[in-house]
Amino acid sequence: MINFAIFKKTIKDSAWTIAFAAAGVIGFVILIVFSMLNIGTEVLQFVKSVGFIRKIFEATLGINVEGDISINTLFSVSFTHGMVLMLTWGTIIAAATRVTVGEIEKGTADLLLTLPITRTESFLSTTLAGVIITAVMSICPIVGVAIGIQIFETEEVVELRRYVAPTINFFAINLAIFGVSTMIGCLIHRRGPCVGVIVAVAFFSVVLNFVEPFLPDFQVIGYFGLLHYFRPVDIVRTETWPINSMVTLLAIFASTIAIGMATYCRKDIPTA
Known about the structure:
- This protein is an all-alpha fold and 272 residues long.
- The protein is built from 11 helices and no strands.
- α8 runs antiparallel to α10.
- The protein is globular, with a radius of gyration of 20 Å.
């Protein structure tokens, strides 16, 4: 069911994008480690004293500043920082839409589908490549933390094992983003509008996560935001595995991929 020629071509076409994005995420996380070691505690003390700023800080970075916060907890911000999400999700969206809608827009999809493979093989091959790309981007934050604590001296012991659960949860939410992107890419023939819809979905999720602490009414619909199922700070602080959240995200991935494949296998492909 997997055509390894298409699989390798998909990986090869995205190789430079993945390399630059991964390097960017790792480099940025190293900067986060440096900044948290130098000013993290002082910033938190200031934030605690100003209620409004505290709410903005908590909503933006996902940190509840009440009580003691360890350096391990501060480093977990690496998973939800806007720059990390932008680079990670941008790479995943580009990979998800490259074949499903990119080839159609270029007018080469009909040529691709004349090869001696089924549409199911084509779809599954590119999906597997997308999952690999998603996995690579998902481990970048923990790699950045690991490199950062080797470069910079820390007074408190940093336990990398505490970042394993957030990394797997990050992989799950990234798979959900990949699944949604793939599904939308199979439903729309033009890459521009397709990416616009995907970005709108991601933006909606981020906005819900941001306004939830300020507007209690939005907590009712907070479950519709993907970031509701990704709380790395709480995971690191409590050292618990968010099984329910990860199952929900994987269910979103599986269902959107199934819809995307059903659509891709039946849709009419416009010729060049």
